[in-house]
Amino acid sequence: MSKKIFLCSICNINSGTCNEDCQFCSQSVKYSANIERYKQKPIEAILEEARSVERAGALGFCLVTSAKGLNETTLKFVCEVATAVKKEVPRLRLIACNGTATLEQLLILKESGVDAYNHNLESSREYYPQICTSHSWQERYETCENVTRSGLKLISGGIFGLGESQEDRVSMLNSLKELKPISVPINFYHHNEALPLKPSELSVDEALSLITLTRSILSESDRIMIAGGRESMFGNRQNEIFKAGANSIVIGNYLTTLGRECDRDLEMLRSLNFDIATSPQDGKK
Ligand code: SF4
Questions:
Q1: Residue 223, strand partner residues
Q2: What is the assigned CATH class of domain 4-271?
């Protein structure tokens, strides 16, 4: 039986308006990165994206907002979008990614049709204060615990290439293991000149070995998903991420950077003899 690859797509329903100071994030207003900024994407545009990625084979559709966490207005907007997408494109598994969230807020999202919540630890507990001072790593961890309590599926991962040590990487992966996420999004830092961090120094071979390390520590998670930075990190060696341990990718554009055309990803999967997952169970390792 051929390996089945779970495809996910992300939709930035509110962009570039965050007041936090995460040094890796071009959505922070503190760094004036040259990106599109808006409060609420029109629902019809979101539905069009949902239909289009579903046609391309995506099963996951992630509604992302840029802020530290949910407030009343954002929660209402995400619920409105979730209800509309669920009605129009019911096959999509809906993921919300809206920062720190209380148990009550997560339960409201669940009632609106959200299936899973994505909140990344981003880096290790030890290294995080060096890349973000406006909120704590602990708050991130606690939101992940709230997700599991709410009955939503937890999706949580991080970013490599932020200047962290190998010890930090192992520490983050061990913290993720404690949280038992079903899917672990792995991002590779994609440098933007407006950001204070230095460009990532990871080589392709090191990045592939980090995917393998993630797969081995998170052995109970259904999916290791390669998300932001796939194209810039791996270039023409993207096909090697699956052998390294990935069984899920983000297709289409990322939050503030362009991905490659879906057709090229589908062609890559065909050439590797992989099938596309048509149910969440299919995507399991
Ligand atoms: S809290 Fe999220 S959106 Fe805001 S700067 Fe940090 S990573 Fe970016």
A1: 183
A2: alpha beta
Sorted by where each begins, the domain ranges of the chain are: 4-271
Tell me if 114 sits within 8 A of 96, measured CB to CB. Answer: yes
Ligand 1 pocket, residue 66 CB under 6 Å: yes
Nearest atom (ligand 1) to Cα of 68: 1
One DSSP character per residue, the chain reads: ---EEEEEEEEESSBS-B----TT-TTBGGGT-S---BS---HHHHHHHHHHHHHHT--EEEEE--SSB--HHHHHHHHHHHHHHHHH-TTSEEEEE-SB--HHHHHHHHHTT--EEE---BS-TTTHHHH--SS-HHHHHHHHHHHHHHTPEEE--EEE-SS--HHHHHHHHHHHHHH--SEEEEEE----TTSSSPPP---HHHHHHHHHHHHHHTTT-SEEEE-TTHHHHHGGGTTHHHHHT--EEE-S--SSS----HHHHHHHHHHTTPEEPSSTTTT--
Beta carbons of 92 and 65 less than 8 angstroms apart: no
CB-ligand 1 contact for 122 (6 Å cutoff): no
- If one residue of 14, 17, 28 were mutated to test the ligand 1 pocket, choosing by the most ligand atoms within 8 A of its CB, it would be 28
pTM of the entire predicted model: 0.95
Q: Is 270 exposed, middle or buried (0-12, 13-18, 19+ CB in 10 A)?
A: exposed
Alpha-carbon distance 186 to 246, whole Å? 9
Tens of pLDDT, residue by residue over 79-138, are 999 999 999 999 999 999 999 999 999 999 999 999 999 999 999 999 999 999 999 999
Question: How do residues 199-215 score in pLDDT, each as one tens digit?
Answer: 999 999 999 999 999 99
